[in-house]
Amino acid sequence: MSKSGTLDLASGLGGKIDKEEVKSAVDEYEKYHGYYGGKEEARKSNYTDMVNKYYDLATSFYEYGWGESFHFAHRWNGESLRESIKRHEHFLALQLGLKPGMKVLDVGCGIGGPLREIARFSSTSVTGLNNNEYQITRGKELNRLAGVSGTCDFVKADFMKMPFVDNTFDAVYAIEATCHAPDPVGCYKEIYRVLKPGQCFAVYEWCITDHYDPNNATHKRIKDEIELGNGLPDIRSTRQCLQAVKDAGFEVVWDKDLAEDSPLPWYLPLDPSRFSLSSFRLTSVGRMVTRTMVKALEYVGLAPQGSQRVSNFLEKAAEGLVEGGKKEIFTPMYFFLARKPE
Asked: Which domains does the chain carry?
């Protein structure tokens, strides 16, 4: 059901941005980031524009390479990437104690891969919150093809200002999404507001670890690369995220960086030193093929001008993620389970 071919990739490049305006959108997006001299304040004050441009530009690349679930996973030996991604989503559902009939919110749902998997796994109704029109359009089509339109839906909105009344949901989760929030406390407060008392919020956060040194030029470069290639205003520390959820009013049940005891490194799919047929498009060879293909598509006019530059900053992100993982200064799976008091 995901984009599986060259023409599928080309047709989605640019998302909802007019094809003639993709190049200027890339120009504007790049200027936000420290890698090109941009400032954190500008990224935070314009986060809606920045993140929307990012996902319009990058979603087709993600779907082409990763499938429907755009996230990393704790991974066991002998386990495929796809199996680990599903288990990572099931783990979240189990931690939340999801039961048939519960009403669940997915904050920053992408095109809804986790939403569909969790809904089917737990027999719950899941609403995906997303501020990107292109991803919602794709998600609705994928829901239809999967036969889950009756239990899964999407709402277009900013997760800093959710259009739900207080105490609406039985559970809330976010998978590598609230890292886009300009203010974690404000984001978590909105989640707290729409969650019913006594119920739980679970999240996988992108964070810098205690090994990160802001005065280390290499560490700073890696952080800039990850922010550029992933549409982030800033990467917060695990300590900052934990304090933020407490400041929002939650009681923390437990927290852990799940990357610390993953038998296989979370960044393995992007590691240039490995080769895999099952996830070939994510390998260095596969990414080189994609890069060459996008260059050709742009040259003959099937892909909009600027597509190759999007491919390039996603490549830069992959390099930063692998280097950040190997140096243990970055994690995409700082997990915490928090409860809203009765």
From this structure: 6-70+267-324 (no CATH), 81-263+326-339 (3.40.50.150)
